[in-house]
Amino acid sequence: MSVYTTIDRDELQAFLDSYQVGQLVRYRGISAGVVNTNYFVTTDQGEFVLTIFEQTEAEELPYFLNLTNFLHAGGLRCGWPLKRADGSLFACFSEKHGKPAQLAVRLPGEVLEKTLFSHCRIIGAELAKMHLLCADYPDHRDNEMGHSWRMQAAGEMMSALPEKDQQLLKDELVFQQAIDWQSLPRGVVHGDLFRDNALFDGDELSGMLDFFFACDDVLVFDIAITALDWCRDSLTSFNRDKLEALLEGYQSQRSLSEAEKQALPAMQRAAALRFWLSRLTDVLNPRDGELTELKDPTQMRDLLLDARP
Ligand SMILES: Nc1ncnc2c1ncn2[C@@H]1O[C@H](COP(=O)(O)OP(=O)(O)OP(=O)(O)O)[C@@H](O)[C@H]1O
Ligand SMILES: N[C@@H](CCO)C(=O)O
């Protein structure tokens, strides 16, 4: 999606007043994204993006918003929340909606429709910079879409799948349970670095977006998630040369250990499984909204099939 929360001009101006970013000129809903409501907002002082958090509780937001501020301050190319006049990074959008919201500066550029080797190298290098910077991030968060979630989601989805997919899912869960994640280097991961979570302005990365799945996890799993979407030629065909380019970019900043290199194929399977399950969950539990986007789970199933020997 998506616009799940429809807003009006007066409530938007009232929200903008707490940021001192001038008078509202125009605004429009953004159709991209699945989780939150986003609007492009133009005032007489600049271009901004309003995000209304649809699933994240206010108590959880400081982890994510402080993280993006920390990364921005450390020189990472990323979107970050503006401070309100009282110094806070978010507020309830309006009494009527009762949902927390943030305002960010609109970054230039577009989401890439197709990736080149050069894009894979650039995103790999930026991901490694994020991993390195986060070694000093003081806060912690568990991955809510880790092993327990995976087992629960698989249980809920199983009966809705055709028999062949049920078998694939069962086999993959068995395979994944045998992987030793504990011995691999961990840190803060982005967790969802798909193409639509980065903007390119010409050949330049203007920024990574949407850190709302960030958490502590295995770093090479984050590489596998990123590769899942950046290293494809079409919706379902994985390009191993693009993976090499991404790894080259990544290793220009942070070297991978032998154990991480060995673990990568299993992590690619874990990444495809994670998004197969989350997309299935979204499709089977659709949410109401004015503009909504649902992503096709079968693409992730096919990437999982492709990643298996
Ligand atoms: N700071 C920004 N500058 C420019 N565009 C932005 C910015 N933040 C968000 N956008 C635009 O809004 C879109 C959706 O944003 P985002 O990915 O954060 O939404 P989401 O619903 O959380 O998405 P996802 O499905 O990836 O979880 C982006 O793809 C981008 O086009
Ligand atoms: N990036 C996710 C959606 C948001 O988490 C996907 O493509 O399924």
Provide an overview of this structure.
- By secondary structure, the protein is α+β, with helices and mostly antiparallel strands.
- The protein folds into 2 domains: 97 residues, Phosphorylase Kinase, domain 1 (2-Layer Sandwich), CATH 3.30.200; 191 residues, Aminoglycoside 3'-phosphotransferase, Chain: A, domain 2 (Alpha-Beta Complex).
- Helix content is 41%, strand content 15%.
- The chain is built from 9 helices and 9 strands.
- The strands form 3 sheets. It has a 5-stranded antiparallel β-sheet with strand order 1-2-3-5-4, with helices on one face. It has a two-stranded antiparallel sheet with strand order 6-9.
- A hairpin with a 7-residue loop joins strand 4 and strand 5.
- Helix 4 packs antiparallel against helix 5, helix 4 packs parallel to helix 8 and helix 6 crosses helix 8.
- The longest helix has 27 residues.
- The chain is globular.
- The mean pLDDT is 93.
- It binds adenosine-5'-triphosphate and L-homoserine (HSE).
- The site of L-homoserine has 8 residues, from helix 8.
Q: Over the alpha carbons, how many angstroms does the gyration radius reach?
A: 20 Å
- Measured as a percent range, the helix fraction is 40-55%
Biggest sheet strand order reads: 1-2-3-5-4
CATH topology of the largest domain: Aminoglycoside 3'-phosphotransferase, Chain: A, domain 2
Strand content: 5-15%
Would you tell me the overall average pLDDT? Answer: 93
Order of helices and strands: HEEEHEEHHHEEEEHHHH
Task: Please give the CATH class of the largest domain.
Answer: Alpha Beta
**What's the total helix number?**
9
The CATH level-2 architecture of the largest domain is identified as Alpha-Beta Complex
What count of structural domains?
Answer: 2
Topology, number of strands:
9
Are there runs of 5+ residues with pLDDT below 50, and where? none
CATH superfamily of the largest domain: Aminoglycoside phosphotransferase (APH), C-terminal lobe
Query: What structural class do the secondary elements suggest?
Result: alpha+beta
Question: Which ligands are bound?
Answer: adenosine-5'-triphosphate, L-homoserine
